[in-house]
Amino acid sequence: MSVETRYTKSGDVHVAYQVCGSGPLDLIWIPGFVSHLEVDWTSPVKQRIFERLGRFCRLIRFDKRGTGLSDRAAAIPSLEERMDDVRAVMDAVGSKQAALLGVSEGGPMSILFAATYPERTLSLSIYGSYARRLWASDHPYGRTAADWEGVLQRLEREWGGPVAMDIFAPSVANDPKAQAGWANYLRQAASPGAAIAIMRMNGEIDVRHVLPAVRVPTLIVHRKGDRLTYIEQARYLASHIAGARLVELDGEDHIPWFGDSDALFGAVADFLSTSTQAQEPDRQLATVLFTDIVGATEKAAAVGDSEWRRLLERHHALVRRELVRFRGREIDTAGDGFLAAFDGPARAVRCAQAIRSAVRDTLALDLRAGLHTGECEVMDGKLAGLAVHIGARVAALAGPGEVLVSNTVKDLVAGSGLDFAERGQHVLKGVPGRWQLYSAAPAG
């Protein structure tokens, strides 16, 4: 099979991709923590897997920014930036809709993509993955923080050799040929610093709140004895994604091309041959942003109606300028308040910070802003549903000049470089339960 490496630009980053096969279905392979498109083809096992998938689909693979043949990044990319890379690759190859195959670390980003862009996602397959990597009191399935730190130290210490094969691929851990191939692959896929930074960011990932918003056909495949990502994490995914099919396979290997790869990719092939997503989605994951001017009534009374109208016009222009810059979509405006929606939570937070600064510095007005990420109903271009109500309630609790976010937003921006301070747990009027809120630190 002849395959050519091509490049597309995602923001300022060049992302390497390959396309093989000519089937009617587009399948996007979203790799684990590191990859290398061309070295992959030197493995007979991987070549057989790619050729098998390519017989019934157009297989689209890419190296994430910072790894393989893609540009090295100044910072480890967030899930949101990785979603942008997938969209850029899809656009480059003319793919309007595709099935996603998220491997290991590629799973959480695939989940986020499927929930955010249901109109571009035919189905979702996840192998060896998780919603949250680390242990938590309400998620007692992952590794503890101390255990994960030990894994990271070991990766750094052993990088250049057959790193942690007893965890990643125990079935071939003592095979000299497999050891040499694994070590060579890792060296070419990423530098040790990049690999450690990626894995450290993985420990911060938590997409549990997104799972109910996934409404495309979903397959979860996992090996029962996986030593890196435990089977309970796959079962958690299956129990929280509506209609998800779980296939548990024998074996301990985390790396998909070790162990019984035929059973693994056979399950994926069977699923892809029967699953479609034809209906027009009426729900999607979005980050909603509410803003309003602090003390608007008092300010209007102080300056008079004419001057207040001029201030509001300038305010609206500033807000709309920043929405365009951060790819936000204006949903509604009433008086001095805005409701906007974003396809990425980090962009939404940064937009809120930029709006706050612009309005303060230009108009000497204080804003408050509140953000929440959740599943929204889409009706005639408008958004509705509980997520919108939660966003409004969060905004109402923000102080002057504050950007206040729900814990859902904070959990989804791992790797973004944003900093948050705890603002305690709150009861949001009309919303069940107590909600942990965070104040976004001023932009540097």
Write the layout of secondary structure elements.
Blueprint: E1 5-10, E2 13-20, E3 25-30, H1 37-40, H2 44-54, E4 57-62, H3 79-92, E5 98-103, H4 106-116, E6 121-127, H5 145-158, H6 165-168, H7 176-189, H8 192-202, E7 218-223, H9 231-240, E8 245-249, H10 261-274, E9 283-293, H11 296-303, H12 305-325, E10 329-334, E11 337-342, H13 345-363, E12 367-379, E13 382-384, H14 386-397, E14 403-406, H15 407-412, E15 420-427, E16 434-440
General description of the model:
The chain is α/β, with parallel strands linked by helices. Helices cover 39% and strands 24% of the residues. It has 15 helices and 16 strands. The protein has helices at 37-40, 44-54, 79-92, 106-116, 145-158, 165-168, 176-189, 192-202, 231-240, 261-274, 296-303, 305-325, 345-363, 386-397, 407-412; strands at 5-10, 13-20, 25-30, 57-62, 98-103, 121-127, 218-223, 245-249, 283-293, 329-334, 337-342, 367-379, 382-384, 403-406, 420-427, 434-440. It has an 8-stranded mixed beta sheet, sandwiched between helices. Strands 9, 10, 11, 12, 13, 14, 15 and 16 form an 8-stranded mixed beta sheet that branches. Helix 9 (231-240) links the parallel strand 7 and strand 8 (245-249). Helix 3 packs across helix 4 (106-116) and helix 11 (296-303) crosses helix 12. The longest helix has 21 residues, at 305-325. It is elongated and about 80 Å long. The mean pLDDT is 92.
